[in-house]
Design a protein that fits this description.
This protein is of the alpha+beta class. It is 62% helix and 15% strand. The protein contains 22 helices and 17 strands. The strands form four sheets. A five-stranded antiparallel beta sheet has the order 2-1-5-4-3, sandwiched between helices. The protein has a five-stranded antiparallel beta sheet with strand order 7-6-10-9-8. Strands 12-14-15-17-16 form a five-stranded mixed beta sheet. A hairpin with a 5-residue loop joins strand 4 and strand 5. Helix 1 packs antiparallel against helix 7. The longest helix is centred in the first third of the chain and has 89 residues. The protein is flat.
């Protein structure tokens, strides 16, 4: 029923919206918009006419101003030309030739500057004023004629012919004044005409404005009153009918219909109102049958449903409850339902129920109810109150759900948990349970005893407390990774500190699992202290063996190394003697002596560096990892072995990659590997004929690794035994130990790489090794 009614109401609402959209084309809104549009347009039209008149006045005023500027420009040229003529005329009257020649230049310049300024001012005026025919040609005539006339007058004055000077002024300069005078009169007349026209236009505009504004106001008020009255009547009358219809609906008169003509919103609203009244009538009839449908739903749902009076006595119970218990409805009403509750659960349940009734609060309980076959099963029972507007309880509603299967499963979780706890507490492995904050939630007895604690001393404390201080940051990071990757196991090694302060080494496995209150981390811990000691002993033995190998190899290279060290020492002695000679002169050459001393320092430093590298190879100590430039190590070994290569006419060639990333490793161990491979290559070539070349390459490899190779042109790998060269004690040298290559491979593998060999064509061999870069080593 509920789904069908909801669907019908949605369908009816959709149809009403579609009708509203369809009828909105001739609605009240467009009427009001049209009314306001007419009013606004009339006002805008009046404003536009007024603004246009003002624009005309402004245009006239601007043109009058431009003409005034033109008049001023022409008048200034005329004035400057008058001054030019009057000054020259006065000088001619005084017959002062020097004065006339001296004043002529500045007077001409003043006139020309005025013409230039006037021309610039005219260029800024509107185009039609710039194109005034007489002005610019007149200015050009004056500009071209004035210099030649002034030069002729100056020549005549210098020769003393003052009569000719006066004639020149009268016949040539005076006509120029006449030209400018005519321009002034023309522009002045034009300005006067423009002023008269502007005054006439302003008076016309005033009359138009005084006529347009009142007419616009009266027209606007008339339109507003007419349209407002019409629109108001078209709205109020239909609204009155709709109000009457609403009152009828409130009284339950669903047969009432309103009559509104037209196609606007109110007419559509009247149609919607009538349609609503019809549908309410249908809906009311439908609701009459909904109670039976609701009862059917309540009787059919797979749960027990009931209601009680405020005192707790049952007044309704659904058919499912009756079918499950096998009771009749009249036997289950009131308080007779108690006969179905298991005797062991009855007292507790009734006590909870009466407490809920007294407190007026919801309750939830579990109890066993008897089924129709006489067996009992577990049910989850809930009761909630219904209150009226004043908060008084008027009804209680209850439900019961079958939880027999859940109870059975819970019993199996408990049994499994007990088995797990037996394993947890009796296993000879340390177990810790840690929460997301890193606090110990539980520790098994073996784990606590191994560390010298009681379990209660560790629970609730940070798990980091039992780890060595330098390992705590790594442990914290590993636990965080477990929490980020739920269900994925992680492995690590660390050191733990017992209560008495002794340190043990452990290997741990951590795994985070989800729980209701947040994830937890399960940690299994294995004591590997003895394994670590054995491993350290093995590494020490390997280090001792590697040291012996280095000493043996260096012993073989003693002569070569002595020669390598002797070179910088000999150079230092030579430079010292040179320095003494420069100082023993009558006038010591301090500059040359200083240069020789500098070379002594450089040679001595070089010798010291060579000796330091040799001493490092002889030193015996723990392995220390650092950031290393492989190319730099290669260059160091080339320096140490250069004399040995010269001794056997062997050439070194390097192809070192640029911008190689550093590696994390032990510099001395990597030097030993390169020395072994390079010495082996040189020994393989010292007795062969032809090219003797040792090629050392470095480049980027795959998987964040560097690839280094040492190639020779020697005798090559031993026939039929190439796969044995990395076996301990296998050697092809008469006095070899057979440990160089095995030790080198062990060193490279401890650096996260690999060492292998391949034969060259037509002769020789290449040894390759890889090293993990610094970034890969950190990962």
């Amino acid at each position: 029923m509920g789904l069908d009614t909801t669907t019908r109401l949605k369908h009816w609402t959709k149809r009403a919206e579609e009708k509203s959209l369809h009828a909105g084309r001739l609605n009240i809104g467009p009427r009001l918009i049209l009314c306001f549009a007419v009013i606004v347009l009339s006002m805008l039209a009046a404003d536009a006419v007024v603004l246009w008149q003002f624009h005309l006045v402004r245009t006239q005023a601007e043109r009058l101003n431009d003409i005034d500027q033109k008049l001023v420009a022409v008048l200034r040229v005329h004035t400057s030309l008058l001054a030019f003529h009057d000054q020259l005329d006065a000088l001619a009257d005084s017959e002062d030739a020097k004065g006339l020649v001296a004043e002529a230049g500045p007077l001409r310049t003043a006139v020309l500057e005025e013409i230039h300024r006037a021309t610039s001012a005219l260029s800024l005026l509107p185009f039609d004023l710039q194109r005034d025919p007489p002005i610019l040609p007149t200015f050009r005539v004056i500009q071209s004629a004035l210099p030649s006339q002034l030069e002729a007058i100056s020549t005549l004055a210098t020769s003393g012919d003052w009569r000719a000077v006066h004639l020149r002024l009268t016949n040539q300069v005076r006509p120029l004044e006449s030209l400018t005078s005519a321009l002034v009169e023309k522009v002045d007349r034009e300005a006067s005409e423009q002023q008269a026209q502007t005054a006439l236009n302003i008076r016309r505009v005033e009359r138009r404005v005084f006529l347009i504004v009142p007419m616009t106001a009266a027209f606007t008020l008339l339109i507003a009153a007419t349209l407002g009255l019409a629109i108001t009547r078209s709205i109020t009358q239909p609204l009155t009918r709709l109000v009457e219809g609403s009152k009828a609906l409130a009284r339950g008169e669903f047969q009432y219909q309103v009559t509104i003509s037209g196609k606007d919103e109110l007419a559509h609203l009247g149609q919607v109102f009538n349609d609503t009244a019809r549908r309410l009538r249908d809906l009311y009839a439908t609701l009459q049958s909904s109670e039976d449908r609701l009862r059917l739903v309540i009787d059919t749902i797979p749960a027990h449903v009931w209601s009680t009076r405020p005192d707790g006595s049952v007044d309704f119970i659904n058919r499912r409850w009756l079918e499950t218990t096998g009771l009749a409805a009249e036997d289950a009403l009131g308080w007779d339902w108690k006969s179905t509750v298991h005797p062991d659960d009855l007292a507790g349940y009734v006590t909870q129920w009466r407490a809920a009734l007294a407190a007026g609060q919801s309750m939830e309980s579990e109890a066993r109810l008897r089924r129709a076959d006489g067996k009992y099963s577990w049910w989850l029972i809930r009761n909630v109150p219904q209150r009226d507007e004043l908060g008084n309880i008027v009804k209680w509603y209850g439900t019961a759900f079958d939880i027999e299967e859940r109870k059975r499963v819970e019993a199996q979780l408990r049994e499994s948990e007990e088995q797990w706890r037996d394993v947890f507490e009796n296993n000879p492995t340390m177990y810790f349970i840690v929460d997301a904050a890193g606090m110990v939630m539980a520790v098994n007895p073996f784990g606590a005893e191994t560390l010298g604690y009681k379990a209660e001393e560790l629970v609730g404390k940070p798990v980091l407390n039992v780890f060595h201080e330098s390992d705590r940051e790594a442990i914290q990071r590993n636990v965080a990774l477990c929490l980020e990757q739920l269900g994925r196991a992680k492995y690590w090694e660390a050191r733990k500190v017992r209560k008495d302060g002794t340190v043990i080494s452990v290997r741990e496995t951590g795994k985070a699992v989800p729980r209701v209150n947040g994830p937890i981390v399960l940690i299994a811990c294995e004591d590997i202290t003895e394994q670590k000691r054995a491993g350290e002993a093995l590494r020490q033995a390997q280090a001792d063996l590697a040291h012996v190998n280095r000493v043996t190899t260096m012993g073989e290279l003693t002569a070569s190394l002595a020669h390598e060290v002797n070179q910088p020492i000999a150079a230092a002695v030579t430079n010292a003697n040179t320095c003494l000679r420069w100082l023993a002169r009558d006038h010591p050459d301090l500059k040359e002596a200083r240069a020789a001393a500098t070379r002594i320092v450089k040679d001595a430093t070089r010798a010291g560096e060579i000796i330091s590298r040799i001493r490092l190879l002889f030193e015996k100590g723990a392995s220390e990892r650092e950031s290393i430039d492989v190319n730099e190590v290669i260059q160091e070994m080339i320096v140490l072995l250069r004399s040995e290569a010269i001794r056997y006419s062997i050439a070194f060639r390097t192809e070192l990659g640029a911008d190689l990333p550093p590696v994390m490793g032990d510099r001395v161990q990597l030097q030993q590997v390169l020395m072994n491979l390079m010495v082996n290559g040189m020994e393989a070539m010292k007795d062969v004929d032809g090219t003797r070349e040792l090629i050392i390459k470095s480049q980027r490899g795959g998987n964040e690794q560097l690839l280094v190779s040492v190639s020779d042109t020697g005798v090559g790998l031993p026939a039929q035994k190439a796969d044995q060269i990395f076996n301990a004690f296998f050697t092809t040298k008469p006095h070899g130990t057979g440990m160089g290559l095995p030790i080198s491979r062990s060193i490279i593998e401890s650096h996260g790489g690999g060492l292998w060999a391949a034969g060259n064509s037509p002769r020789g061999a290449t040894f390759y090794f890889t090293l993990a870069t610094k970034a890969a080593a950190h990962e």
